[in-house]
Amino acid sequence: MKLFHISDLHIGKILHEVNLLEEQKIVLAQVLALVDLHMPDGILIAGDIYDKAVPSAEAVKVFDTFLSELADRGISVFLISGNHDSSERIHFASRILQKENIFIKGIFDGKLEPVELNKDGQKVSVYLLPYIKPFDVRPYYPEEEIDSYDRAVRTVLSHVDVNPEAVNVLVAHQFITGAVSSESETVMVGGLDNIGADAFDLFDYVALGHLHRAQKVKRETIRYCGTLFPYSFDKNEGEKSVTMLTIEQGKEIVVDTLAIHPRHGLCTVSGSLQEVLGGEGCEEYVKVVLTDGEDQVDVVPRLRVKYPNLLTVEFEGRMRAALEGIKNAEQIADRSPMELFAEFFEERSGEKLAEEDQMLVEQMMRELLEGGES
Asked: Terminal CA-to-CA distance of the chain, rounded, Å?
């Protein structure tokens, strides 16, 4: 049995005021071509279907066309909402669409029940877990102490009875500890949204969305498939692909990546204005970083002659001044919000944060985490 794994389509995304819908149509057409070539039995779509909770009519039409093409080919679809999606909008008409073998879980309702796939004696159980926060889970497990993302996911999964005779696949949209992020994602300071990889030990394959770089986490079968199109100039995003898993007899899973080739990639060109204008030029979406000591005037029209898909221009001198005095971002990301607040308080007041005040701040942070996020 074969399954495709894709995620983070971000349909309707606008990058530096450029609408990427046409680029997204091209990569989705490539996915359909790979479906025709490899004939998978199902496709796992691990969240962030749209870039905004209220997508444009054009974005909805693009995804509707893609789903219809999959349904016409008889491909089962397993789809969840991500943190960019409106869970209610994604969940709409899910019961009706089951008749077309399109299985959607946009809203967490306290249950995680499998969808069964059977072929030539093979049995695969697919579990759909939409993006969840602690406050999404707490109403269904009032006896549990759910004070973190990690605890929320572990609580949900601890109530799942997997079939040991089946290959158990989980589709989820969360940040797993040890994964590599890139510029185009929103990652919480201090790792508040981190989930330990061992939380997924029950499952033979975990199809993840949320991070934009294709990668495994801890083991070969806990994987982010990455995006189909690069959404930042960060080289960490890597090459774009569809992840294909082939389930052999027994429970052996072979993972392959099938290349996707966007019409335009993203690249960064650096140098003085004279050096950049003297370069070869390209058709990619370009960020130009000018290293001249002073800001240049009216550079964009001149640069567009050489780089017609110029997206943005940055001035290195201005960036250096803006970054002066800011601490290393990696050091900040590795520290908890409470540690950062305590240091800020001490720097501003000249006194250490009292223990009772620290307890109050921690309580306020928990309440914000549980009910005040957007």
From this structure: 39
